[in-house]
Design the sequence.
């Protein structure tokens, strides 16, 4: 390694590495932030404000994590597992972000109280793998809707999205070094340019509000009065279980790679800061964040394990949040391209889940196989139920029985601790 964990590069290398980490963090913010903003029917001004808040929260959490949390070179970005909770949420926006805040508080409490070890016993390898697979499957309708586009022929848009995804997969296989870690960013930029050249160029940058109105909108968007909705809380309960497993995996993976000392304490502080960060995200009305597991690949490619360039990357994210014109430019990405990027990200998550299943020998006999297969099949059936069938489910049970993610999670927990219970 050119720079070890606690080394401080000189000014120019620090700037270059910081810009690199910044460029890697931006695509996930754009994809997931834009999807949530569009899903919640926000107008252009509200979308830009949403992205500003998301950039600020993720940047601040990254800054705190690197200096006082796990103190590891880990990128912070919006958690795709929480996107499922946003999609599945049946309550108001206030109920969704209240659930995110409560979930973050529970994660922080578990981390700082030392209760994570007890909770982890319930969520075995098979349960964790199925939950991660369910996220990808139950987001498929959303990915399909984005990939068909908002304008033009839906079949052509879908073909474009699939082709772009394949190109990103090939890029991940063939590119090396820093370029490999920038596949999603390249896909967003080049994919947008290609789509605009085929479907027509946008008229111009979205207008942004004056500073006074921006400040008023910011204050109005805070969740001052929490709202509680039981099905939404349940959906986010399972989402936060997946978030905790992902977070621990990211911290442990980078820590092991770098031979970092005192990993139990790093894991405790890192998970605690993630929980507090999600509390802040719920208060500010944006989707919560997580440490990304892509960091080991970036470290290996650049030979820089120093955590300090990520401090600069976090500050750059916060700086971007104060310049709405930059955010407005980023919101021009077409829905088709966002659908392709989300398809790529979920394919990667599904692949990683299957790798975990094989590595940990999660399927060793018929019953362990059924424990994985049935919840996945159940989730697929429910995710693609026609609306008229969903309406036939009693209203009281519909938010749970009509949600493929929740039903799949319940099914895998029941099967895992009955069919595979150790006597």
Sequence:
């Amino acid at each position: 390694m050119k720079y070890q964990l606690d080394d401080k590069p000189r000014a120019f290398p620090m700037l270059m590495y910081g810009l690199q980490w910044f460029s890697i963090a931006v695509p996930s913010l754009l994809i997931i932030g834009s999807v949530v903003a569009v899903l919640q029917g926000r107008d252009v001004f509200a979308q830009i404000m949403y992205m500003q808040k998301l950039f600020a929260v993720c940047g601040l959490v990254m800054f705190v994590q690197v200096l006082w949390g796990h103190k590891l070179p880990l990128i912070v970005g919006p958690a795709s597992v929480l996107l499922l909770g946003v999609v599945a949420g049946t309550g108001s926006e206030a109920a969704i972000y209240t659930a995110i805040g409560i979930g973050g508080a529970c994660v922080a409490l578990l981390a700082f109280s030392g209760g994570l070890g007890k909770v982890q016993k319930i969520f075995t390898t098979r349960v964790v793998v199925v939950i991660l697979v369910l996220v990808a499957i139950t987001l498929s309708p959303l990915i399909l809707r984005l990939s068909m586009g908002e304008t033009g022929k839906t079949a052509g848009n879908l073909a474009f999205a699939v082709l772009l995804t394949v190109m990103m997969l090939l890029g991940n296989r063939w590119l090396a070094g820093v370029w490999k870690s920038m596949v999603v960013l390249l896909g967003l930029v080049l994919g947008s340019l290609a789509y605009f050249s085929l479907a027509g160029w946008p008229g111009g940058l979205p207008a942004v509000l004056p500073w006074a109105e921006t400040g008023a909108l910011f204050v109005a968007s805070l969740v001052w009065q929490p709202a509680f909705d039981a099905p939404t809380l349940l959906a986010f309960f399972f989402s936060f279980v997946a978030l905790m497993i992902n977070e621990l995996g990211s911290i442990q993976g980078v820590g092991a790679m770098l031979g970092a000392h005192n990993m139990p304490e790093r894991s405790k502080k890192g998970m605690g800061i993630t929980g507090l960060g999600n509390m802040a995200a719920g208060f500010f009305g944006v989707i919560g964040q997580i440490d990304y597991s892509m960091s080991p690949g970036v470290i290996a490619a650049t030979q820089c394990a120093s955590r300090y360039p990520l401090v600069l990357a976090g500050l750059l994210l916060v700086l971007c949040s104060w310049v709405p014109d930059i955010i407005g430019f980023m919101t021009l990405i077409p829905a088709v391209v966002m659908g392709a990027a989300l398809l790529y990200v979920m394919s990667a998550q599904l692949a990683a889940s299957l790798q975990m299943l094989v590595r940990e020998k999660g399927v060793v006999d018929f019953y362990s196989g059924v424990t994985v297969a049935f919840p996945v099949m159940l989730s697929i059936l429910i995710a693609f139920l026609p609306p008229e069938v969903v309406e036939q489910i009693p209203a009281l049970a519909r938010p749970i029985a009509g949600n493929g993610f929740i039903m799949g999670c319940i099914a895998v927990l029941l099967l895992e601790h009955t069919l595979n219970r150790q006597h």
